[in-house]
Specification:
Elements: E1 10-14, H1 25-41, E2 47-52, E3 62-65, E4 68-70, H2 73-79, E5 90-91, E6 95-106, H3 107-110, H4 115-132, E7 136-141, E8 143-156, E9 159-167, E10 173-177, E11 183-190, E12 193-201, E13 207-216, E14 223-229, H5 235-244
Parallel strand pairs: 1-10
Antiparallel strand pairs: 2-3, 2-7, 4-6, 5-6, 6-8, 8-9, 9-14, 11-12, 12-13, 13-14
Length: 247
């Protein structure tokens, strides 16, 4: 899909075309260690800068964070005030807001430190790890108000519809899909907005889960919206939900 300037901002490619991994085995082991530490130490809605001793010959630090959780649509709207996103209390007449998780960028990824500052912090954390006789050290970080990904859940009984909003990263968003996944896509126009309608087929080749994707906002402040249904919703009803975000 393209924006008003004709630039490609959303595309779908097979997984085999995804960029190959460039990390070394040493780096991969370090990142596994950091991932496990973040899972253990970080509560929801927090961030930390980690230094791990093993598998870290270049004395690197790694930032990890967890999403902020919301159970109230009004509180979420208040938090995102001024952002070009739309948060609804319900979808149609039946699906009510259930919850949301929002990823905000840590402050060190918004105001990035200089190489000298980064090296000094890494050395400080290395010494902390050494003095504590641990193989890691962590420095808490604040989260900024700069959100880049949110997912809201709407429910009617056991039926569920999710709405995901992803902020543009100054380039096309590419969705990679595994080759063995059977799906059909078509471009549709809803109130003049180009959208991508996708049906994922089950093992019998019949239509299964559906979603609809589009880009909203002006150049430089674009958001990708995607609505996923988990309740055998019709194409027409899915389009009606998409329309509610355009009004």
């Amino acid at each position: 899909m393209k924006n008003e300037q004709g630039e490609v901002i959303y595309e779908v490619k097979p997984l085999k075309q995804s960029p190959p991994p460039t990390s070394s085995e040493e780096e991969r082991q370090r990142l596994i260690k950091v991932r496990d530490l973040a899972e253990q130490l970080l509560p929801d809605g927090s961030a930390g800068l980690f230094y791990v001793v093993p598998h870290n010959p270049d004395k690197q630090t790694d930032t990890r964070y967890k999403p902020v959780m919301f159970n109230d649509a009004a509180a979420l709207r208040a938090k995102l005030a001024g952002k070009q996103v739309k948060i609804l209390d319900r979808l149609g007449e039946s699906f009510k807001f259930e919850s949301a998780k929002v990823f905000f960028a840590p402050v060190n990824e918004v105001n990035r430190p200089t190489p000298e500052e980064k090296a000094a912090t890494a050395e400080k954390l290395r010494k902390q790890a050494e003095e504590s006789s641990k193989d890691y050290a962590m420095m808490p970080l604040e989260l900024s108000d700069d959100f880049f990904h949110l997912r809201t859940v709407y429910k009617q009984g056991d039926d569920e519809v999710d709405v995901t909003i992803v902020k543009s990263n100054n380039g096309p968003f590419t969705a990679y899909i595994e080759e063995d996944i059977d799906f059909e896509q078509e471009k549709i126009k809803v109130k003049g907005v180009e959208m991508l309608y996708t049906v994922y087929k089950d093992k019998d080749g019949k239509g299964g889960r559906k979603n609809i994707t589009w880009i909203n906002g002006s150049s430089g402040a674009e958001y990708t919206y995607q609505i996923d249904e988990f309740c055998d919703m019709s194409k027409e009803d899915l389009i009606k939900i998409a329309e509610s975000f355009l009004n």
